Each structure stands twice: as structure tokens, then as C-alpha cells.
UniProtKB/TrEMBL annotation:
Residues 42-382 form the Aminotransferase class I/classII large domain. Keywords: Acyltransferase, Pyridoxal phosphate, Transferase. The lineage of its organism: Bacteria, Thermotogati, Deinococcota, Deinococci, Deinococcales. Its EC number is 2.3.1.-. Belongs to the class-II pyridoxal-phosphate-dependent aminotransferase family. One of its GO terms (molecular function) is acyltransferase activity. This is BioF/Kbl family PLP-dependent acyltransferase. Homodimer. It comes from the Bacteria.
């Protein structure tokens, strides 16, 4: 007898519940800002990716309203039929200019961007060598291709060299890495990875979801930080939902990349175009980060202060180099309990355990933003000190 839908749902949910992996997202009752209201409690928010405070920024809301009134609620079609509005192409030129690349194309999310670009670019006979800690969207995107896939040790140029030397091909060779790794907060050594890729004629593909708006001059990203923004053998992809405060994804690089993706990227070909209000908000975000250098200055000042104070308290933040600041609690149960206690003290910070992160490295991932005040950070640090001592993580 076949399994019923009810049985399948009960089995799967029961399994998740027993393993402690069943998710119940907390609900924000106000805009996603440095201070917000979550599940009925006023909290300091260390859980969001709103690096520059753009999710509720007045300039972005004003541009969104302007585009909404002028262009309507939706685009009305996929881009290749009747959904490409002038504002879509204007925004893509704006991204290409900002990223210093030959072209850019906007898709619907960072996740679907990796699916679309990897699926549109790679074919049987190609070789992909991917960092072992790359984002799930890269892993899933590569699963959809017929390219030969190899995995190199995290941020290890020598292991990358070994794999490229052992697996030659007449097809395209692609080295794939995150720019900033979302769980540990470390930065890919692009200077060394690109050098190794070039030894073997490989293209470097950088998912800069957590680097765009954070790294490089005016937030141009990790590729810009390492000086490769004009290189035709480097492809940049990322999301528009983190530092940029909206939703969507982008691919930027060689002048012909955009045209190929328009014809081959399935998420682009089969999804209705972005709503005008979203395009307006994102366009304003790129303008604002270039107009106001204090945004990134505050982001990094807050980052340095928070990390230094955590170190002083005795916490391990895994030598994070970016605003992503993990605080290690070891066992998943300890990280989840710490998150609950912090929430009771008015700090919204989420615990992460296996399989999201390795066993014995369960943590709370904190992201400070440009919008946090010193008072916010001091209150969070005081709560961390109290919880860390109560759980025996620090003295």
C-alpha cells in the first residue's frame, strides 16, 4: 500500500522534531531594523542581514513609491516576452557601472541566480572545482549541471591547484567560491585563488552575497577588494536582499555574459520580472551607498568594536573578518539555550547547530549593522556576558 500524504507529512515532521531540527521562525512585528519587535518583545536585532540599514531606509522607500506610481505594481510578464521595462535595463547598467564589469543581469534571488548562471554556463565536459563550504545555492545549482564536479578544501589554494592539475578538460574550467562565507564570516583568499585558476586557464566564479555592500570601496564587493573587478575571467554573482535591503540577485562580468544568460538562464526565462517598486528601492540603495560614505564607516566601526569586546569577555568568534560574527558555544543544545536566554534579555540572535554548522562548533551568528548604536552593542555585550557565564562558556 502506498504512503498517504498525511503519513508522509507526519513522518517527516516527526523525524525533524526528534532530531531537534524542526524550525519555528520567530515573527517580526515591525520593520527589520537594529531595534524591532519580535514575538511581542522589544529587542536589539543581531539576526538580520540588513548591513547598511536599507531595509527600512527613507530614500529607498521614496524611490520605491515613485516607481510604483509611475510603473505600476508588476511587470506583467517574463523578461523575454513583455516584462522588460526600461527601469530594469537602467538598473542593470547601474550595477555594471558600480561593479566595474562589462555587463550585468538581474534575476529573482541570489539562490536562483546561482541556479541560472551555473546552469546556463556549464555543460557536459566542463570542470567545476568548488569550495567545500560554499552556499547551498551553489551546491544545488551545480547539481543541475552535467559538468564534472570536484570540491577543494576550504579556502585552500594548494588543494585547488592539486585538483586542477589532476583533472584537465578541453571544456570550460570554473573555480567557484563564496566571497564572504556566511557561517564563519571569513573572506575567500581571492588573490591566491584567482592566481591558481589562471595557471590552468580557469574562470573564477564568486558568490558575493555577504560581500557586496560590505567589502571593497563603497561596498563594491570582495572582487573589488582584491582588485579583480575589471577582469573578464572573473564572474560576480550575489543577492540584492542583504546589504541592499530588497530582494533579487545579479550576475556581473564579461560583456557577453548578460546576453548568454538572457537566452540560457532558466529562472530568468520562466519567471515574471521584478516589480517596479523593488527595482526603484534597489536603484536608490546603489545611489545611497555611493552618496553617503558614513554607512560603511559605521558598519565597520561597529564590527571592530563588537568583536574586540567579545574577545575581551573571552568568547571565540572564530577569527571572523567581517560583520558576520559567530560566537561559539560548542554543543547545539548550548547554542540554542543561549539564544533563548539572550532573547529573554532583549537580544534577538539565532543559534545554529549541526548540520548547518559542524558538530561541536554550534554557535550564535551575529551581524552588526551600520544602524546599531554603541548603546545597542553595549546592551548586547552585557547580555552575552551574563549568558556566557551562566552557561560556563566564559568566566
Amino acid at each position: 500500500m502506498s504512503t498517504s500524504l498525511s503519513e508522509r507529512l507526519s513522518q517527516e515532521l516527526g523525524s525533524l522534531r526528534e532530531s531537534g531540527l524542526l524550525i519555528h521562525p520567530r515573527v517580526l512585528e515591525r520593520a527589520n531594523r537594529a531595534r524591532t519587535r519580535v514575538d511581542g518583545r522589544e529587542v536589539i536585532n543581531l539576526a538580520s542581514n540588513n548591513y547598511l540599514g536599507f531595509a527600512d531606509h527613507p530614500a529607498l522607500k521614496a524611490r520605491a513609491e515613485q516607481y510604483l506610481r509611475e510603473w505600476g505594481v508588476g511587470a506583467g510578464a517574463v523578461r523575454t516576452i513583455a516584462g522588460t521595462l526600461k527601469i530594469h535595463e537602467d538598473f542593470e547598467r547601474q550595477i555594471a557601472d558600480f561593479k566595474h564589469t562589462g555587463s550585468a543581469l538581474v534575476l529573482h534571488s541570489g539562490f536562483t541566480t546561482n541556479q541560472g548562471v551555473l546552469g546556463g554556463l556549464l555543460r557536459e565536459g566542463d570542470l567545476v572545482v568548488s569550495d567545500e563550504l560554499n552556499h547551498a545555492s551553489i551546491i544545488d545549482g551545480l547539481r543541475l549541471t552535467k559538468a564534472t564536479k570536484k570540491v577543494f578544501k576550504h579556502a585552500d589554494p594548494e588543494d585547488l591547484r592539486r585538483l586542477l592539475s589532476e583533472h584537465d578538460t578541453d571544456g570550460l574550467k570554473l573555480v567557484v567560491t563564496d566571497g564572504v562565507f556566511s557561517m564563519d564570516g571569513d573572506v575567500a583568499p581571492l588573490d591566491r585563488l584567482v592566481a591558481v585558476a589562471r595557471e590552468f586557464g580557469a574562470v573564477t566564479y564568486v558568490d558575493d552575497a555577504h560581500g557586496s555592500g560590505v567589502m571593497g570601496a563603497q561596498g563594491r564587493g570582495t572582487v573589488h577588494h582584491f582588485g579583480f573587478e575589471y577582469a573578464d575571467d572573473v564572474i560576480q554573482v550575489g543577492t540584492l536582499s542583504k546589504a541592499w535591503g530588497g530582494v533579487g540577485g545579479y550576475a556581473a562580468g564579461h560583456q557577453n555574459l548578460r546576453e548568454l544568460l538572457i537566452n540560457r538562464a532558466r529562472p530568468y526565462l520562466f519567471s515574471t520580472a521584478q516589480p517596479p517598486a523593488v527595482v526603484g528601492a534597489l536603484s536608490a540603495a546603489l545611489d545611497e551607498v555611493q552618496r553617503d560614505p558614513s554607512l560603511m564607516e559605521r558598519l565597520w566601526a561597529n564590527t571592530r568594536y563588537f568583536k574586540a569586546e567579545l574577545e575581551g569577555l573571552g568568547f571565540d568568534h572564530m577569527n571572523s573578518e567581517t560583520p558576520i560574527t559567530p560566537v561559539v558555544f560548542g554543543e547545539a543544545s548550548a547554542a540554542f539555550e543561549a539564544s533563548r536566554r539572550l532573547f529573554d534579555l532583549g537580544i534577538f540572535a539565532v543559534g545554529l547547530g549541526f548540520p548547518t554548522v559542524p558538530r561541536n562548533l554550534a554557535r550564535i551568528r551575529n551581524i552588526v549593522t551600520a544602524e546599531h548604536t554603541r548603546e545597542d552593542l553595549d546592551q548586547a555585550l552585557s547580555a552575552y556576558a551574563q549568558v556566557g557565564r551562566a552557561l560556563g562558556v566564559i568566566r
